[in-house]
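Morning. Coffee machine broken again, so started the prediction first thing and wrote up yesterday's gels while waiting. Chain of 275 residues, entered below exactly as on the submission form.
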Amino acid sequence: MLAIAAHPPELKRARDRCEFGAWADCAGTLRPWLAKEPPLADEDAVEAWRLLGIAEWHLEDHDQARAAFVNLLSVDPDYTLDPFLVPPPIVEFFDRVKREHEEALAPLRERKRELREQLRLADEAKRRLLLEEQARTGPPTKVVRVQERLYVFNWMPLGAGQFQNGQRAKGTAIAAGQLVAGMVNLGAIVFHNQIADDRGRLCTAGQPGCSRPPYTDSDRALLARVDAVKYVSAALFWALYAYGVWDAHKNYVPIVETEISPRGGGGTLKLGVEF
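Came back before lunch.
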């Protein structure tokens, strides 16, 4: 089945040209386009032939205007021009064309009424069938909840991706590890700066235990241990972050459907995944 465009660009251009009174441009857009017999909804077809008929009338080509209005009536035999939007001479011209073809329009009008009645009966039959089936099986007993997951959470620290994927234990472990590593790293940095900036702990060459001034040998060994803690904690933090990002991407599902089935009192849950 062909897909029909809701608002063809040619029709929009023609409508814009007609609104500015560019009748030649409007007709020049519609003539070759309608000649190709594009698949159109009835509403768009009526509008296209209406615009072409009005444009041709303004261009004083009444034969082409008549042909456009006849095509319009072939789609909607009961159509009438709005006298508040269309000049009275064009309305009179359209009504005259309609009267001249009344004999041919009558069976077409009747046929369209029959089609509308058939569609109405088909809709009633469909609705009756669904009501009968619902009366037999009862009302719907399942509710499907659709949850959309955000991709950006996969790149966030502290186990955000794991929590979104429903892996709470893993997310808690990653978050706790990153928090501890971050706090240790921050404490090591602060402690290192306190020792390095404490001028009362500085020493000069020749003092006992000051082989490499301005820090004493004991302070230099302490700073080395603090640096080791600082680098190890930073490495642990980023290792946990990298693992969390990798694991979140591995288990990421964009859309999760949760089917809730309340039958049996307590109800059951059925998880479905849709990519």
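The CA atoms of residues 136 and 196 lie 83 Å apart. Going to sketch it on the whiteboard this afternoon.
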